[in-house]
Specification:
The protein has about 350 residues and is an alpha/beta fold. The protein contains ten helices and 14 strands. α1 crosses α7, α3 packs parallel to α4 and α8 packs parallel to α10. It binds 4'-deoxy-4'-aminopyridoxal-5'-phosphate (PMP).
């Protein structure tokens, strides 16, 4: 039995793996694989339509929202977004609260002016900056809702007077949020919603209308909207895996039910870590992520044997990101509470042996 704490690609529900593998051999009793049907067939059109309507339902989106499934990981959105909305004589505002946000900033600078409203880089992104002001004349304000590498999460939606943009790659659909407050949301699928290779984009129709022209067709959001995410051949299998994961999320009670489970998992883990003095939690408590818990050991010499103990219990993905070190436990939607229970039991045993 494996316990998969990988940061992404990461664990998906068992039922998704089973149904996806069946569909590779025989999609819906058609005698054809999902990998060999045309994307402009009623068979695939039904997949895409259901995926779009499940996103609208689970996120409780209003009529003014467009839902797109686009190629590439979230890193494609780092440049596609400013390519559409920024220019040499305008400014976009960004919050610099983690490695992924800083990569988004770097890409945006290729297209126009960037105002970094605040940064926690100096303290190794151990917190979310809490006092900053966003200029009213910027074309949008961009932030990362959950910093996957550093294990911080922004728990409140910032109040701004300009279009609000968020990279939700590592916490999308993990907690209740008023998704309608955002003008543009993007998320790589490979953590909470499906297989790598596709991005979910949710955007205001009015905001998309303001996009730049004269950019490559595949980059222009308006053209993807006009073609219903079928401007070219979409990543059909990755979208199908999203559909299966969205169906699963709905079947367990949607985002509200998911949030309760995620809170249970995270509080069990953080409470255990806090109760055992051999562990150290570097992140400011108010900004701790419910999706990625980062910790180190006060005695670095113990790290290798802790890692070995995890390995012996079938745990994968516990090592911290190479830029941070220590450990990172990813608690995405599909990770069962039982995996966290096994881990916290191991932590207690380990601490009593070495504490
Ligand atoms: N943003 C965040 C918050 C992420 O966690 C990641 C990947 N871990 C990315 C962007 C980049 O995603 P991709 O590898 O899909 O380009």
């Amino acid at each position: 039995m494996k316990h998969n704490f990988n940061a992404g690609p990461s664990i998906l529900p068992r039922v998704v793996f089973e149904e996806a593998s069946r569909a590779i051999l025989d999609f819906n009793g058609t005698g054809l694989s999902i990998l060999e049907i045309g994307h402009r067939t009623p068979l695939f059109e039904a997949v895409l339509q259901e995926a779009v309507s499940l996103v609208k339902e689970l996120m409780q989106l209003k009529e003014d929202k467009e839902v797109l499934f686009l190629h590439g990981g979230a890193s494609t959105q780092f440049f596609q977004l400013p390519m559409n909305f920024l220019s040499k004589d305008t400014t976009a505002a960004y919050l610099d609260a983690g490695v992924w946000g800083s990569k988004a900033i770097k890409e945006a600078k290729l297209f126009g002016n960037v105002k970094v409203v605040a940064s926690s880089k100096e303290t190794q992104y151990d917190r979310i900056p809490d006092s900053y002001s966003v200029p009213d004349d910027a074309v949008y304000f961009h932030y990362t809702t959950n910093n996957t590498i550093e294990g911080t999460q922004m728990h409140a939606i910032p109040a701004v007077n300009i279009p609000l943009v968020a990279d939700m790659s590592s916490d999308i659909l993990s907690r209740e949020m008023d998704f309608n407050r955002f003008d543009f949301i993007y998320a790589g699928a490979q953590k909470n919603i499906g297989a790598a290779g596709v991005n979910l984009v949710v955007a205001n129709k009015g905001f998309l209308e303001k996009g730049n022209t004269g950019i490559p067709s595949m980059m222009e959001y308006r053209q993807h909207v006009a073609n219903g995410s079928m401007l070219n051949t979409p990543p059909v299998f990755a979208i199908y895996v999203c559909l299966l994961t969205l169906r699963w999320l709905k079947s367990i009670g949607g985002v509200a039910a998911m949030e309760k489970i995620n809170e249970q998992k995270a509080s069990l883990l953080y409470n255990t870590l806090e109760s055992l003095p051999i562990f150290h939690l570097p992140v400011a408590p108010q900004d701790r992520s419910l999706m990625n818990a980062v910790f180190t050991m006060k005695d670095p010499d113990l790290e290798a044997s802790f890692l070995q103990a995890c390995k012996e219990e079938g745990m994968v993905g516990v090592k911290g990101h190479r830029s941070v070190g220590g450990f990172r436990i990813s608690l995405y939607n599909a990770l069962p509470l039982s995996s966290v229970e096994t881990l916290t039991t191991l932590m207690k045993h380990f601490a009593s042996k070495h504490g």
